[in-house]
């Protein structure tokens, strides 16, 4: 006998002021479901999740949950009134002896349970809400953007926990890698309708595109039929008025059907205005060191940023990624070392804290009062890449309607605030673009568009993000900030960085010997007499051969470094760049292994 769904929504209708958000919506969540809930910003994802959680009462319809079934919702703005600490609030529903569950979640999600809610940041409050949900472990978890404000390590912890849970969950996220790893079904909200497909997010985009393609074909056929029937009406109705009134009414019905079709929301009309070409060297850093409150951010750090580089900064929250970028831009002074900037730099900054937006200002004022966009003598025009535009028209390009123009910034959703900040940045010309957590709150279609724009951008990009998929799509170099002042450069994006770290950690018993002849000064020098007691014949032979192997590997690495040093290679020949990056990782891992093997054999020979 089939078990009842954990949650059943039947004929749900909901209206907020104007047009209905949902009308006649029905869906079910079964035991073991792992569902991605996707849709454009503003499509109603969070509202639907609140209906599922029982926090929003629909105008019509039924929400049914079987008796004794526990449903948990990750609160976006928890009320901590009456609680002295975040942990006290998060543990309120745990039985005595189960507090350890919260400790585990707090450690994995990196928040301090002893923090006073009054001094906690918005990110810490959200992490407390997520930790509470994970510790309580309800039978159905409703997760609305759980990866926002998490660093990559915490995202990995959460992903592992959700993979092994027996609970069902519905998940809203912009993080492609997270969705692909976890989901087995997809709920898609599109223009008030909810569709379900029994495949995870990995198959969503192909499904979406097929639905839209079928819609376009059907709309084209309907338009042709209306045109044909209208021609008949004009040419023949006067001679057959009484006999053909049914056909006239049918034509009216066709036109009504066409008028009632809801057009798909377009993508934001984003564009990056490129300024004058910067110098070939954008930033040079020499021996940077910096400490805050006794914590080392970087120590003796060198970096050369070339024109056209796409450099990603990754690492745990609080490790100093934003501080390092501000040092490179000259906004923060290093304790030691110096910065040299190239010529003709025009810098645009996307701020993760949205601090450049005044929450009390209207959207209109946020644009017209911006010194970089103001048009002299005009209160309704903004300068967009050198061309005046009406402020409402420009806002519409970023998917804001006219009614929002006079609304305060604080009334916007996270995704809308991100779009408004992008509107301000993209009105400027630039040749250096700093993106500090740009992916938070943006929907997948806008992320795709931003990625395409960055691919065509001739300037330099400095990027901080915890979105692994976005890093892989954008970054050509990754700087891993690993704490205690360590900042290490890796070629490629997130997956390349992880691969190179794994290869470096794995022992290689026999390093390959690629062709080459250039010597490597740092290669270890063998003793004059390598054949020493304690080594087998094979080990003695290997000890003699290893210096040659090390020399050849070093020469290969030197050639690859010269090739990858071309700042235009990534955009001009992406396939060649990818292959060179993979080869570099392979050779470096082999060199590390060969040097380790030589040292081990030398130590054994000396015994």
TrEMBL record:
Ranges where the record places region Disordered: 501-533
Catalyses which reaction(s): ATP + H2O = ADP + phosphate + H(+)
Keyword Coiled coil tagged: yes
PROSITE patterns registered for this protein in UniProt: ABC_TRANSPORTER_1, ABC_TRANSPORTER_2
Residues of the ABC transporter domain: 7-216, 283-516
Coiled coil start-end: 543-604
GO molecular function: ATP binding; ATP hydrolysis activity; DNA binding
Keywords noted in UniProt: ATP-binding, Coiled coil, Nucleotide-binding
Signal peptide: none
Top-level taxon of origin: Bacteria
SMART domains for this protein: AAA (SM00382)
Family: Belongs to the ABC transporter superfamily. ABCF family. Uup subfamily.
Protein name, as recorded: ATP-binding cassette domain-containing protein
